[in-house]
Amino acid sequence: MTRQLTQAEVDFVGLSFTDLTGRLFRWEGQLYRAIPAQVAPFYARLFDDGVIDDLVNEQLFVESEISDLEIEGFSLVVWHRTVGPVLYPHEWSDRMLADVAQKQLAFTKRLLEHDLTCGDAHPLNMIFDGSEPIFVDLGSIVRHNEHRSGSIWHKEDQFRAFFLNPLRLMAGGNFRIARWLLREHPNDAELTARSPLLRPTTTSRVKARLARLLRRRDDSVESSLDALAEEVVSLLPDAAEPAVPPSLDEWIVREIVQMAPSSVLGVSNGDHRTAAAVRIAAERRARSVVVANNNAEVNRWYAYASSRKLLLTPGYLELMSPSDDLSNYWYQPASQRLGSELVVAFGMIDQWVLVDHVRLEVVVDRLATLAKRWLLTSLDTSPAGEIPTWSSDRLPMFENFSLETVQGVLGSTFATVTTHEIDDGSGSVWILCERGTGDPHAAT
Prior knowledge:
This protein is of the alpha/beta class and 444 residues long.
């Protein structure tokens, strides 16, 4: 039965207003794309001819189907399976970016078989579904004959700007520069392509020259894509050894199993207990994210999640960094995207307060913003049972830093705060916080 909607009844997704081929909106918890009359017949044909079904079956495109909804001002409504939570390209590791680059090229080659192509080559068109990147932008599928550029893929320059250039920077150890490049507007990042930091190595120059010679033998767009794929391979980082999650106390395991959260965020500073706790929820089909500010650690958890086919996405993120919570009409802040029923942050209160010098109240506020129902953290204590403190003449903010103080600040936000001694003889404690049922910030 057809359901007629007005635009006032739906929640349009912010960035989609820039897309001339349709607008994303949410209605009753589902994600849809409203497509205007001038392009609706083209996209309807993609479904009628089975093109979209083929791409979905090959795990190249997100599950989608024509909806029976109608919305004023548009001629076609398409339902998309919701994928997420979203981690943006500048939050991926080098291995993740390389895998997305290969998926982009494979997707484009598959489209060419139907005389179609990609209207752009920006990594924002891909979202990680667990550890598997998947193309999600229906509006980026366009007719190939309207975008021909001889034997060269018409979006090769953009692909270089947002895939090859950042990968080359990362291969040279310039991770911070690469991540800022990935934040750029699709039409701006190409301006950095002449940077001396992007000069290829001797090996990559030889491979590029060989690719050009091969392209001359096969003067086609497919050959152009194959040459780009070879460049990606030449920049692939070494495969990471999958992380080995440590065993956890029975108390922690029991609590997580009883919670049965639908979503989990793990915040790690190298403490593998955090990702081990997230893994427990992920194995029970909770949508899970683990963030760390170390590329190698993100790669290890990416390798682990990929090998286990878990709904677990790792990401490169420092939640206390102001730049990692920037937002504009392109990006939502991390605090909005990554809020989860359960947040796991073992060892992070100590790290942020005693090492990074962030006030305890700020730390708790940040964690509480993300934790929609539960927060599971820990506090390391000295053998005497007291947390090391700083002298008041150096850093006054740490004068009263203690287990009791942490419990008090947590208790001002959460309804219950429970501690449990860690079973390793250190005297350190697990801390489990839960929101009250009437808390407006609690997950619904």
